[in-house]
Write a structure and sequence with these properties.
This protein is mostly helical. 34% of the residues lie in helices and 0% in strands. The protein has a domain of 68 residues.
């Protein structure tokens, strides 16, 4: 799933213009994003031919937040260049923490008594009367 330069010309107006010292052009970044989407690999597993993985990830994240990727994929589907439909969301269980009560562990049902003594219960302290000295 790689876009050619001719296919890229159809969607070029959907992407922001590149300014400054840019190491990767938009076509390389799009091809890298498509590679990760197709292969399902981690960003760090991106082959070196696509460039630095962190650069690709940063630009993809920026495009996703600003709506650029939505416009690009809509345009790709309207031009029938690429058919992409995202239906799956994956969560890595190493980053999702659950309260111990939510893991199926047995819950404590025995209640500890309050600090105030219950009427008729054992006293919490003992009075030791002292004899006053007689003069």
């Amino acid at each position: 799933m790689e876009l050619t330069k001719a296919q890229y010309r159809h969607i070029e107006r959907c992407l922001p213009t590149q300014r400054g010292n840019v190491t990767l052009d938009n076509l390389q970044v799009l091809n890298a994003i498509l590679y990760v989407a197709e292969q399902g690999c981690k960003w760090r597993g991106l082959p070196k031919q696509f460039g630095n993985w962190h650069t690709v990830y940063t630009r993809m994240n920026r495009w996703a937040k600003s709506g650029v990727l939505d416009r690009v994929f809509t345009q790709l589907q309207q031009a029938q260049i690429l058919r992409v439909k995202l239906e799956v969301v994956a969560l890595d269980s190493t980053i999702v923490t659950v309260h111990p009560d939510g893991t199926g562990a047995l819950k404590k049902t025995v209640r500890k008594p309050w600090a105030a003594p219950v009427a008729g219960g054992p006293p919490r302290f003992i009075w030791l009367p002292r004899m006053l000295e007689r003069p």
